[in-house]
Amino acid sequence: MSHQTPKPNELADEWAAAELGGDTASLKGIMADDFVAVGPRGFVLTKEQWISRHEAGNLKYGSFGLDEAEVRIYEDAAIMVCRQTAAGVYEDENGRYDIDESFRATLIFVKQDGSWRLAGLQLSPILGRP
């Protein structure tokens, strides 16, 4: 029996669970080596920078979830547009920041060596009606 790799929507759920738990080993396997995230204020993080927030212990989530998801698959690429909600705390040398946020998120998946990987993420604040 061959092992089935998760579909993009299943991989997104695995990513959300790994984010919630600060599971860096899972994140390293889920994310493509050239992963890039664009944050809600325009900053850019590489895979290493994204994961280091958990490794350093700076980021602790009490909740983290994805909903309102729509996935479009194009052969070896897929795009998911969803709502990401998160609550927790981020703390570094500049201070402590409470997290209670809701973003519109675009997750970009690519198929590499037969497995889906999270290659990109863009977060946009949800500020209200257009």
From TrEMBL:
Residue ranges constituting the DUF4440 domain according to the UniProt record: 11-118
Membrane-spanning parts: none
Pfam families given in the database record: DUF4440
Gene3D superfamilies: 3.10.450.50
Domain of life assignment: Bacteria
InterPro entries found in the cross-reference section: DUF4440, NTF2-like_dom_sf
The protein's name in its UniProt record: DUF4440 domain-containing protein
Species annotation: Rubrobacter tropicus
